TrEMBL record:
Signal peptide: none annotated. GO terms for biological process: proteolysis. This is Protease Do-like 5, chloroplastic. Pfam families: Trypsin_2. The keyword RNA-binding does not apply. GO terms for molecular function: serine-type endopeptidase activity. Transmembrane segments: none annotated. Keywords: Hydrolase, Protease.
Length: 209
């Protein structure tokens, strides 16, 4: 399952840390629509298998459980126990300050081909795209880096290797199913603001009241 592995959040909800510290439990971010149809087990949890890369470059399979979702931003947070494995979380950048034309790279598993990297540029900023719950996701990043089935939930990174967004959607040519080169990612600044609430409460602040 594509996702952005981040170290366990260690901070309060009123402060956004500039980076994540190493931890034995990873919080992995993916799209809500990727995990929405997972069944619930007898303990009331949704579980799935995720693939991580350890310090040796080896792919390791781990069980993850879904701890929080936000359909309005098409985000979900998974907890993965990585004790005994040396797994380095990905470096988190910032989407504020992005410029149209700068290089970016999408990583995912399109059509089952694992760890595929595609290149492109930031084509537009502040786009509005539909969310799984029918709401509108505002502020999306538009890119021409190829995003296809299997890329959803994977990272969009900049030329320094920092995550600037979470790949979420693509427009396809009508009747062909082929990508039109118009693809979208949720800005990482939005993700960083949202995930503490998902980890602590299972949902966002606005959904609790």
């Amino acid at each position: 399952m594509p996702g952005v592995p981040l170290a366990e959040w260690k901070g309060n909800l009123d402060h956004t840390p500039s980076r994540f510290q190493g931890a034995r439990v990873l919080s992995q971010v993916t799209n809500y629509h990727v995990i929405a149809k997972l069944s619930t087990d007898q303990s009331g949890l949704q579980r799935c298998k995720v693939s991580l890369v350890n310090a040796k470059g080896e792919s390791i399979a781990k069980e993850a459980k879904i701890v929080g979702v936000d359909p309005a931003y098409d985000l979900a947070v998974l907890k993965v126990d990585v004790e005994g494995d040396e797994v380095k979380p990905i470096s988190v950048g910032a989407s504020r300050g992005l410029r149209v034309g700068q290089s970016c790279f999408a990583i995912g598993n399109p059509y089952g081909f694992e760890n595929t990297l595609t290149t492109g540029v930031v084509s537009g900023l502040g786009r509005e795209i539909p969310a799984p719950n029918g709401a509108a996701i505002k502020g999306a990043i538009q890119t021409d880096a190829a995003i296809n089935a299997g890329n959803s939930g994977g990272p969009l990174i900049d030329s320094s290797g920092h995550v600037i967004g979470v790949n979420t959607a693509t427009f396809t040519r009508r009747g062909s199913g082929m990508s039109s080169g118009v693809n979208f990612a949720i800005p990482i600044d939005t993700v960083v603001r949202t995930i503490p609430y998902l980890i602590v409460y299972g949902t966002t602040y606005k959904d609790r009241y």
